[in-house]
Structure formats: structure tokens, C-alpha cells
Amino acid sequence: MNNRDPLYKKIYDDLKYKIESHIYADGQYLPAERLLSTEYQVERLTLRKALKLLQEEGYIQTLPGAGSRVIAPSIPDPPDSSYMIAFVISGDMDRQAQLYHIEICNYLEEYCKADGANVLFAKVCANDDIPPYLRHPDTVRGVIWVANVDSRFLEYSRHHQIPSICLAHNYPHFPRINYADFVSGYQATKHLLQQGCRKIIFLNGIDDSVNRDRLEGYREALASAGISMDCILIADGNWSFSSGSNGIRAVLEKGVEFDGLVASNDMMALGAMQELTRWGIQIPGHVKVIGIDNIDQSRRSTPALSTIAFNQKDIARTAYLFMKERLQGHPIPDEVIIPGKLIIRESSQA
């Protein structure tokens, strides 16, 4: 899947993966179009293009009045496994939050193909058994562990000496590629302060090292501006669009006054902006909003979302080079920090 593919093709690829992985089993019906449109944040016309392609390739059967029924696919033999690298994310992660890492995987695939390698995109949940590509080491030459994958799988890889690196994961025994999360939280908050905001809410993701560092950056920016710690306002989310909406709604229902919002990722920021609009709160007139990540939806939202961007292509290239050097037995740094860049759009302009 190429990052430049149209949106319906990305939906097609995701649904195809879920069918081939038996997340949607043979004979099971896909969720209703209304639910899928909400999940992927697209119009039904876009979704139907993806469903039509799945039907044409024999993955689903559309039954009038009943919906789309899964047909067991005939899965081709995998490519030459001696040149395969696994890119593994947590299946417990919200599906919308997974999109950011999927885009990185798309870039990684481009780099690997140019070098004669293939990429296996996989998900593992905390309670899953050890997957076959780890139990049979000849399947993959190396693994890139992404975000909050349960450390049990990393321990298995370490014990069985499977070459591995981590992306946005602080497991201490593998080389790590992390984001400048403290700086991104600081920079996002400082930007809103410079735009005149003084009562700024921080919208939390899940309690992991990424979110904790971004939250600490927010606190430090307020302290540097001489703003009392009594003014720290925190709303709870879990990285997902709906949690951004729910988190800010809880704040609004309490009657808390604020003029700025820093969300720990873009997806929550977009959910929060939708909820603010429902309450008749103008963005950026009444509340200025900024996220972190620079996902595709951030530039297409209304208003367009300001954000701290981590260049996904650079991240993929670094991961590719890390893995290549590791497979060749060359020394690599214990950790590399990817810097972020402030992108100012309509949602935070004065």
C-alpha cells in the first residue's frame, strides 16, 4: 500500500488485512456502512468504492438488505521470507490511532523494496499467543516493534535473539527511535501562549511514556510563562477521535473556562474540535487548538488543524537504516530522537 493511494484504497487495504487475518471471519458480516463510515471518518461514497473493490476481488459478497458477507480468501504464498522484516503494532491500539503508524509502514515498504526486502505488517494484542513469525525465526530477519506493543513479545524476541528495534517504545534492551515528545508538548503549548491563550487545557492520551513526556512539556511551558500550576487543566482521552470529543465534553459540562487546547495527538484534537463546534464555540475565535503528529486528516479538517509534525518519511528511513545496520552486525546508537516541527494552520491563528 502506497501512502499516495486514495483514501478508499487505504480502507480497502485495511479491510482486506482484517479478512485475511480472520478478524472478520468467513461467513461473518462486516459492520454496517454507517458504522464503517464513522470508523474511517469518510463519506459513504468513499467507503462503497472500497467495498466494491473487495467484492470484485472475491473477499466479500454483497447481499441486498443484509449487508456484506465475508468470503474466505485464497491467500497467496508469501514472498521470499529470507528478506522479510516485520513491522508490528499493538492490536489493542484504537483503530484510528493505528493509521499514523500504517503511514510510516507504507514509507518503510518503499525503502525496503528498493533494497530487495519485503515488509510484513502485523498486529499483536497483549493476550495473544506468540505469533508464528516469531516462533519460526526463518520467517523474518528482523522486527520493528512500534508504540505500546506488550513487552512480553519483545522479551521473547530478545531471548531468541531475533534482531529487533523499537519505534516510539522505551524497551531498554533494543535500539530505539523515539520522538521529541517533551519538546513537542512544550512547543505546542508555547505557541498557544504566544497567540494570547492563558487558560490552556491538555488533552491526555493513554498513560504511556509518549503522553507523559508531552504532558510534562505542557507543564514546563506554562511554568516558563509564569502561569500558576493551579491553572493546569487536564482532560482525559485515549488517543482516539471519540475520546477527544468525550474528554472535552466532560470539561464543558463542568463549566470550566479555557481559551486554548493542546491535544496529545491530532486524532483527539479533531474529536475535540467537533465537540467544541457542537457547543457553538468558535475555533480559533473562542478557543485555539493544536495537536501533535500531523496526520493527513489534520490538513483537511475545518478549520485546518495546527500541529507539531514528525516527518513520517524520515522516521521510516531511520527505521530502515537502523534495521539494515543491525542485520549486518554494525553498531548503531542506543537511541535516536526525531525532532518535531511546528505547523501553524487556521485552528490556532490569532
TrEMBL record:
Key word DNA-binding present in the record? Answer: yes
Q: Start and end of every HTH gntR-type domain? A: 5-73
Top-rank taxon, per record: Bacteria
Q: PROSITE patterns, per this entry?
A: HTH_GNTR
Keywords of this entry: DNA-binding, Transcription, Transcription regulation
KW Membrane (keyword) present? no
- Molecular function per GO: DNA-binding transcription factor activity; transcription cis-regulatory region binding
Name assigned to this protein: GntR family transcriptional regulator
List the source organism: Bianquea renquensis
